[in-house]
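Quick one before lunch.
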Amino acid sequence: MRIAVLHGPNLNALGTREPDIYGHTTLAEIDAMLAQEATTLGVDLTSHQYQGEGEIVAALHRVAAEGAHGVLINPGAYTHYSFAIADALRCIPIPSVEIHLSNIHGREEFRSRSVTAAACVGIVAGFGAQSYPVALQALFTYLSRNR
Ligand code: DQA
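Model of the DQA complex:
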């Protein structure tokens, strides 16, 4: 099983970015947590971080064309307004799970709206860095049942 992880804008700064909200775990540490969980599950995982909306759209099309079976995506702030990413998630014939470190429903009002979530099979939010391995487990189970 092949799963592609797409990290959105500003997530490269995890560890020092608003640690009271996002914690002290760096993106490299999150990728290491994911790699460890992927090894346990027997999943072939790739992971990349993108600042640009168009880069994320292109990456979604690319990973699907290259044979990924599913996507884990934290679209960052694009979550709240990117219809291009929402459309790309709907274009590709593989399921995606949306991830957030923070509970987007417990913060500023503009963050409680996700335009991308409806194009995903589910979301995991609010568990800090732990949201990532939890989402990987959830997508793995979903794919195992729906292949
Ligand atoms: C985030 C939440 C977004 O509102 C924010 O813009 C981010 C991170 C999260 O993981 O909690 O960049 O996606």
